[in-house]
Every structure is written in structure tokens, then in C-alpha cells.
Write a structure and sequence with these properties.
GO terms for molecular function: phosphogluconate dehydrogenase (decarboxylating) activity. This is 6-phosphogluconate dehydrogenase, decarboxylating. Its EC number is 1.1.1.44. Catalyzes the oxidative decarboxylation of 6-phosphogluconate to ribulose 5-phosphate and CO(2), with concomitant reduction of NADP to NADPH. It is a single chain. By secondary structure, the chain is an alpha/beta fold. Helix 2 links the parallel strand 2 and strand 3. The longest helix is centred in the last third of the chain and has 37 residues. The chain is built from 20 helices and 10 strands. The chain has a 7-stranded mixed β-sheet with strand order 3-2-1-4-5-6-7, sandwiched between helices. Bound molecules: nicotinamide 8-bromo-adenine dinucleotide phosphate. Nicotinamide 8-bromo-adenine dinucleotide phosphate binds next to helix 1, helix 4 and helix 6.
């Protein structure tokens, strides 16, 4: 047994992760259900480092140093359970099974519990960065026991992305499902970021009247400022791309129906369970859903409404500058909501997640990597109990400075009939939090009227019910 780590599941993610370990000087045992893939990997990339190919599960386990560290990179769901069933009987107490797939954190909690009974550490690890990240350095979000991190952490720190200051983009997130939970919220934030960028593009196209090439240039400029991020960078690349077959902008020949694999949906489902308002993320998930309903859209094409008329010259450029403000302000709200969800999950499951550390490990390698995350980390480092990102003085000041333009952009979008669900949800969240009184008092009255659900008063302790169908006197119910 010579291998420090093993990877089973050699599709694109597993192969690239195995190569990343090998390139970093580790001896890697490699295994795949279909053995031909193992052979192909070693034939093609064997020169990159030390691989130990294994045809059978038994050979694979025998190749690993103890305590064994075995990474599963197969399709999430039942395949992961099938692989665990195959390997667990071959392992010994103290060994570590790592699931690097996109598992639901509830599955990770279950698997961790079951394997703990056998003395095996099960570590659910969120990995972000796609194929390229897996090969060159992803952002890695490991859950599982602190003991398992002591054995696994140094390897992950070696192969992970590094932030600009050299810090590895990985650290122990918390026990059992914490890593996969944080990866899930990462993807929810990714959906929101992408939708906000899409709305900004739509406004620049229809209201500012910019061409895709001009918008690409605008995003490149924004990418030099506070919006500096991977998603803004690739947005500029996509917008600047020309379709070879037609010579038209690529963005004009792609069908406008966005697809999804499910982690954004999970984020919203879990947020509903935890009672966390992630309205921007939810609108981003729904926006993809609306785009894909072609029959519904076709049936609604004749509905009345304004046709956008584009500005020009300085007015267009002034509007574009406002869109940058709206995008930045909405982005602050998305991250506020996402971090709130991580805090709520951490409280619910007793994970003790350090939010500043999460912001830190997202600074490189992952899809939402951005300069902005340094600021979030600083906010939580300064005040680990920060109740909301909007409670941070710097973010509050920035969003306050952006809000006039944010409102102007939304006003224009509404006037011109351009859908901006994520911008609008973000501004409504901001205004709801600042409101001295919300109409929820009326909601409570209605609930008490039809369901005797009771209410609290602003001026006295206790819970009350009004006898709506009687003499409308008030009774105390507690
Ligand atoms: P896939 O998700 O396409 O899975 C293919 C792999 O699963 C192959 O190695 C296949 O073996 C194996 N597999 C299946 Br399917 N059923 C199996 C079973 N019952 N027993 C054993 N092995 C089985 O691969 P991927 O795109 O590389 O993704 C791997 C994981 O990483 C997934 O959970 C994914 O969600 C996650 N992830 C992907 C990305 C990304 O950008 N693609 C990013 C982050 C995380 P075979 O060769 O014998 O069919």
C-alpha cells in the first residue's frame, strides 16, 4: 500500500481531481466501475505523476496507506450509496470515505451517521470550480469530523485554489453535512449572481441600446472595479463571442431557455424549511423556470405592455452607470441572504460554521470567486456575530450610496416592461428590512379574523384574539 489518496469514479471530475493530486506529488490510487476508464486515464496522463491503477474494489483498498483516504466522485444519489455499500465492508475503523459529489446535505448526514457506527469517517465535501477547477485548484468545502480533517486537510490544502494572499481555498466547514450545505448555498448564490448579471445585460441592451460587443466592454470595465469576479469576466467573454455559422452575436443565436441541475432549487427548498428569506435566490431559480416554459410564453406573447425604447448618447451611458450601482446593491443583498441561510443551517444543526472562513474559501477556485468576498470575510472577522451583512457599517454605507440609482433603474425597467425579478426582490428585501412598520400587522388581523390565530400587541405583553363574529371585544389568550 503506497497511495496516500484514492479516487473512485473517473468521469471528468474524478479524473481531473486525481490528476491534481498526482501533479501535487501525491501517489493516487485510481478506480472506476468501468475499468477501461482507469486504464485510459493512466495511459494518457500517467506521466503527470504517480498513479496506482486498480481494477477491483479490493485492489483499490489494498493500494491505500492507512488510515485510508478514499474519494468518491460518482454521480450523486443512488450511485454514491452503491459505491459506499461496495467499499465500506472492505475498510477498517479510522479510515476516511470522502464524497466529493454534489450530494444533498441530508444524504450526507445520513451516510455520516451510518458509517460512524462502523468507526469510519464519512466526509461530505463540496467542490466548486467545474472541470478546470478540479484539475487546477478548486474551492473545497469539507464537512465531517475534525479528526478526519486532521488527516485529510493537508492534502486538500495542497490541491485547492489559493486566494490572492496565498491562503488555500479550503478549511474545515463543520461536522457531518456542513460542507455540502455550504456548497449548496454557494450554488444558490451563483444562481442569483448569474440572474442579476443577466438582468443588467437585458437593461443595457434594451434601455441603454448597447450592442452585445459594447456590453462586453462595459462588463470588462466593471470587472476592474468592485464587481471584479469570475462571473463578470466570463460574461464579457460570452457577450463578445460571435457565432461562426451566422456571424451574429452568439447570445442572439442561443435559445433563451435556461436549464438547471437542482442545487439552486435545493437552496430555496431548504431556505423555506429554515424560514430564511432568500428572495433574490428564489427569483433567480424561478426566472430559469419561467424562461423554460415555452408554451406559457407563446400563449402570453400578445399581452399588452410597453415596447422598450432605447436611450442614446450620454443618457445611455448615464443609465449604464446606474445599472452598475443596481447590480452591486442587489449583489450585496444576495450574499446577505445566502450567509443568513448558512448561519441558520449552522444553528439548526449545531455546526458552528465560521462565516468569515466560508467567505475566505470562496475567494478562489469556485464559480462565485470575487474580490468582494475579501470584504465579506473582513466584516465577519471584525464581528463574528454580525446578524446580517447589511448590519456591517461599510456594506450599509455602500448600499445606501447606491440606492437612488437602484430605484431609478427599477423604475425604468417597470416603465419599459423589462422583467427584473432579482433586482426587484433584492430592493424589496432591503426596503422591508428598513421599514419602521410592515403591513404584517394587517396580515395578523386577517389571520386572527378567519382562523383565531391570535396576535401580539405593540403596547402590552401577551397574545390576544378579537371576537370578530361576536361583539369584537379583545380577549387575552395566554
Ligand atoms: P458523473 O456525475 O457523470 O458520474 C459519472 C461517474 O459515476 C462515472 O465514473 C460512473 O462510472 C460512475 N457511476 C455511476 Br453514473 N453509477 C455508478 C454506480 N452505481 N457505481 C459505481 N460508479 C457509478 O461525473 P462527473 O460529471 O465527473 O461528476 C462527479 C460528481 O461531481 C457528481 O456528483 C457531480 O454532481 C459532482 N460535481 C460536478 C461538477 C462538474 O462541473 N461537472 C462540479 C462539481 C461537482 P462508469 O464510468 O462505470 O459509468
Amino acid at each position: 500500500s503506497t497511495a496516500q489518496i484514492g479516487v473512485t469514479g473517473l468521469a471528468v471530475m474524478g479524473s481531473n481531481l486525481a490528476r491534481n493530486f498526482a501533479r501535487n506529488g501525491f501517489t493516487v490510487a485510481v478506480h472506476n466501475r468501468t475499468a477501461a476508464k482507469t486504464k485510459a486515464l493512466v495511459e494518457e496522463f500517467g506521466h503527470e505523476g504517480a498513479f496506482v491503477p486498480a481494477e477491483t474494489a479490493r485492489e483499490f483498498v489494498a493500494a491505500l496507506e492507512r488510515p485510508r483516504r478514499l474519494i468518491i466522485m460518482v454521480k450523486a444519489g443512488e450511485p454514491t450509496d452503491a459505491v459506499i455499500r461496495e467499499f465500506a465492508p472492505l475498510l477498517e475503523p479510522g479510515d476516511v470515505i470522502i464524497d466529493g459529489g454534489n450530494a444533498h446535505f441530508e444524504d450526507t448526514r445520513r451516510r455520516e451517521r451510518e458509517l460512524r457506527e462502523q468507526g469510519i469517517h464519512f466526509v461530505g465535501v463540496g467542490i466548486s470550480g467545474g472541470e478546470e477547477g478540479a484539475l487546477l485548484g478548486p474551492s473545497i468545502m469539507p464537512g465531517g469530523s475534525a479528526e478526519s480533517y486532521a488527516s485529510l486537510g493537508p492534502l486538500l490544502e495542497k490541491i485547492s485554489a489559493k486566494a490572492a494572499d496565498g491562503t488555500p481555498c479550503t478549511s474545515h466547514v463543520g461536522p457531518d453535512g456542513a460542507g455540502h450545505f455550504v456548497k449548496m448555498v454557494h450554488n444558490g448564490i451563483e444562481y442569483a449572481d448569474m440572474q442579476l448579471i443577466a438582468e443588467a445585460y437585458h437593461l443595457l441592451r434594451e434601455v441603454a441600446g448597447y450592442s452585445p460587443a459594447r456590453i462586453a466592454q462595459t462588463f470588462r470595465t466593471w470587472n476592474e472595479g468592485r464587481l471584479d469576479s469570475y462571473l463578470i469576466e466570463i460574461t464579457a467573454e460570452v457577450l463578445a463571442h460571435t457565432d461562426a455559422a451566422t456571424g451574429r452575436p452568439y447570445v442572439d443565436v442561443v435559445a433563451d431557455a435556461a436549464e438547471q441541475k437542482g442545487t439552486g432549487r435545493w437552496t430555496v427548498q431548504i431556505a423555506l424549511d429554515l424560514g430564511v428569506p432568500v428572495s433574490g435566490i428564489a427569483e433567480a431559480v424561478f426566472a430559469r423556470s419561467v424562461s423554460g416554459h415555452s408554451a406559457l410564453r407563446a400563449a402570453s406573447a400578445d399581452l399588452a405592455g410597453p415596447r422598450p425604447t432605447a436611450l442614446s448618447g450620454e443618457a445611455a451611458d448615464a443609465f449604464a452607470a446606474r445599472v452598475e450601482q443596481a447590480l452591486y446593491a442587489s449583489k450585496i443583498v444576495s450574499y446577505t441572504q445566502g450567509f443568513h441561510q448558512i448561519r441558520a443551517g449552522s444553528d439548526e444543526y449545531g455546526w458552528g460554521v465560521d462565516l468569515g472562513a466560508v467567505a475566505s474559501l470562496w475567494r478562489g477556485g469556485c464559480i462565485i470567486r470575487a474580490a468582494f468576498l475579501d470584504r465579506i470575510r473582513a466584516a465577519y472577522d471584525a464581528r463574528p456575530d454580525l446578524p446580517s451583512l447589511l448590519a456591517d457599517a461599510d456594506f450599509a454605507r455602500e448600499i445606501g450610496a447606491a440606492q437612488d440609482d437602484w430605484r431609478a433603474v427599477l423604475g425604468e425597467a417597470v416603465r419599459q416592461g423589462i422583467p427584473v425579478p432579482a433586482f426587484a426582490a433584492s430592493l424589496s428585501y432591503y426596503d422591508a428590512l428598513r421599514a419602521e412598520r410592515l403591513p404584517a400587522a394587517l396580515t395578523q388581523g386577517q389571520r386572527d379574523f378567519f382562523g383565531a390565530h391570535t396576535y401580539r400587541r405593540t403596547d402590552r405583553e401577551g397574545s390576544y384574539h378579537t371576537l370578530w363574529s361576536g361583539d369584537r371585544s379583545e380577549v387575552r389568550t395566554d
